Automatic annotation (TrEMBL):
This is NAD-dependent protein deacetylase. Pfam families: SIR2 (PF02146). It is an enzyme of class 2 (transferase). It comes from Anaerocolumna aminovalerica. NAD-dependent protein deacetylase which modulates the activities of several enzymes which are inactive in their acetylated form. Nicotinamide binds at F36, I108, D109. Its main location: cytoplasm. Its EC number is 2.3.1.286.
Amino acid sequence: MNKETLNKVKEILKESNHIVFFGGAGVSTASNIPDFRSATGLYNRATGTDYSPEYMLSHTFFTKHTKEFYDYFRNNLYYPDAQPNNAHKALVKLEEKGKLKAIVTQNIDGLHQLAGSKNVIEFHGNATRFYCMKCGKRYSSEYAFHRVGVPKCEDCGGTIRFDVVLYEESIDDNIYRYAIHAIKNADVLIVGGTSLVVYPAAGLLQYYKGDKLILINKDCTPNDHMADYILSGDISEILWELVEEII
């Protein structure tokens, strides 16, 4: 990691009071939640079936193979004991100082809120929230995942699903507009822990019109050329180092 770039970014964060953070799965890897596309990520693991991980997380698969969907989800995307790491905590500190105005996250684990962040825009939903598809009754993840097979509503018998956008499904229009508004109005945009290959999320970068786009990631992304500053490495370590002098 380039120390000169790190120190420059520190100064930028000290001077700004309108920062927005846009993050992905890499933010939660230090909390022992795997990402998707790295060498050890979810999409490079065997599923034990004839289906790809991407297909098993699609609307079609959920509809046609609901039991298998829940089996896969329970084994690969349910981490009830996961705790926020220093990346989440650093963002909380920035928000408490009045510097960070919003977090736009692709993650569905709810760790930003668990850490204490208030203004979190969940682009892909939240896997800790469940609802009955028939009557709309809300359920906890504990209720849904501690059932055998497909969880059913205790009131009407409808299928319970989580409040997450699957492949083939559209992003909620209000969430989309909220995310665009936050990024458009950012003085500083920090992008971290994301491969920037999943659309429409990756397309949000086009709405940032400033000149302080900070990219923090372990690997290169297709949009590195858009960044004004690049910090390579573990985002939980880098974010904490960036904010520790501010807090």
